[in-house]
Amino acid sequence: MAIKDNLQEILTSIPKSVTLVAVSKTKPEKDIQEAYDAGQRVFGENKIQEMTQKWENLPKDIQWHMIGHVQTNKVKYMAEYVSLVHGVDSLKLLKEINKQAKKHHRIVDCLLQIHIAEEDTKFGLDESELKDLLGSETFGKLENIKVVGLMGMATFTDDKNQIRREFKHLKTQFDKLKATLPKIDTLSMGMSGDYLIAIEEGSTMIRIGSSIFGERNYN
Ligand SMILES: *Cc1c(COP(=O)(O)O)cnc(C)c1O
């Protein structure tokens, strides 16, 4: 099926209040242009250099979301244009984003990544690390970043109950955070395989790649 039809199908299956991030990592610019021509404006990438090249070549009203694990030394390449950083999992990284955003007189929106999966391979903060980060004196002084919510990835499994449980856990942390920080409004959870469950559990932002652009080739 064409990219345009895939997009349409997903958009009709989700509430209007949920933001669709089209995950275009590894995909060529012509695929992104096709989605853009169908009206999509929010795209997600997981490598800063790849995202920056695409940003340079594609329409400037695209909102670029960094959804992958961020290396501190690469933040400088995206600070000028990135619209949301999903995978922030340390104060050190937040400080670097703040520093680079300041050079461009910007305030960069960030999501803190929470570890909800059983797999150790996935990145993210646990509940006490989140608390420590938000409570730290340094965090309170960062003026060029804005934490707008949380992001998480469920375990890669066919067990729908487990996925739902992990999303519920993230939603609980999101609600707690929201009660203390009024700026919090974004809960990024759900991918091609689990976005309908994620939305049922309170997601406000889904990150969909293969169901829009087809399977990825990593060669
Ligand atoms: C690749 C990726 C996605 C999209 O995955 P699909 O299964 O292709 O929809 C979503 N979130 C993150 C963090 C990713 O790395």
Automatic annotation (TrEMBL):
<dbReference type="InterPro" id="IPR011078">
    <property type="entry name" value="PyrdxlP_homeostasis"/>
</dbReference>
<comment type="function">
    <text>Pyridoxal 5'-phosphate (PLP)-binding protein, which is involved in PLP homeostasis.</text>
</comment>
<dbReference type="InterPro" id="IPR029066">
    <property type="entry name" value="PLP-binding_barrel"/>
</dbReference>
<keyword id="KW-0663">Pyridoxal phosphate</keyword>
<feature type="modified residue" description="N6-(pyridoxal phosphate)lysine">
    <location>
        <position position="25"/>
    </location>
</feature>
<protein>
    <recommendedName>
        <fullName>Pyridoxal phosphate homeostasis protein</fullName>
    </recommendedName>
</protein>
<dbReference type="Pfam" id="PF01168">
    <property type="entry name" value="Ala_racemase_N"/>
</dbReference>
<feature type="domain" description="Alanine racemase N-terminal">
    <location>
        <begin position="2"/>
        <end position="216"/>
    </location>
</feature>
<dbReference type="InterPro" id="IPR001608">
    <property type="entry name" value="Ala_racemase_N"/>
</dbReference>
<comment type="similarity">
    <text>Belongs to the pyridoxal phosphate-binding protein YggS/PROSC family.</text>
</comment>
